[in-house]
Amino acid sequence: MGDLTPQDGSAKTAALSQELMTRILETMKTVVPMGVTVADPETYSNNITDTHEALGPVACYTEAANREFVTSAKSLLFSAARWDEYAQESSAVQHGYLTKAFIDTVNACPFVITNQGLHSALHAKVVQLSSDGQSPVMRGQANRAQDTFLAPFTSSM
């Protein structure tokens, strides 16, 4: 696969060999997000285009925006970064940027915030902390976005 040691010590992403990177870019058509439960992974079939290599090497692509939220998803997921970004951390904030943003946001709110409101607050704080444009992502079941964070579900699919 390649060297698993971060090149500059800040990222926890495997460094892929050039041969493996080339094969990935030539064959990758679908990305199924980990953590979002769907009954049929075909929901995500052919959901990416424009595969290319960035520094790292890192496989980058454009994801179909209409597949970030799918009706058949059974969960809502917050992730630290887009697929083509590193989830960063810093000893200055003593956490990963998403963790720091979660702590600050939850401690500052009256523990009543919608999932969409939480995502917006997390995104703003992480972008502020990140020098490389790390962008937290929310994906999964669209109708959960307006539910209150950590509250019981109000609907079932």
Binned, the helix content reads 10-25%
Total beta strand runs: 6
Strand portion, in percent?
A: 15-25%
Structural class: alpha+beta
Main sheet: strand order: 1-2
The helix count comes to 3
**Major pleated sheet:** 2 strands, antiparallel
Give an account of the 3D structure.
It is a single chain. With 157 residues, this protein is an alpha+beta fold. 24% of the residues lie in helices and 16% in strands. α2 packs across α3. The longest helix is centred in the last third of the chain and has 15 residues, at 115-129.
Give a short overview.
It is built from 3 helices and 6 strands. It has helices at residues 18-27, 97-108, 115-129; strands spanning 48-54, 58-63, 76-79, 89-90, 95-96, 137-140. The longest helix has 15 residues, at 115-129.
Task: Name its key features.
alpha+beta, flat, disordered N terminus
SSE map:
Elements: H1 18-27, E1 48-54, E2 58-63, E3 76-79, E4 89-90, E5 95-96, H2 97-108, H3 115-129, E6 137-140
Antiparallel strand pairs: 1-2, 3-6, 4-5
Helix pairs in contact: 2-3
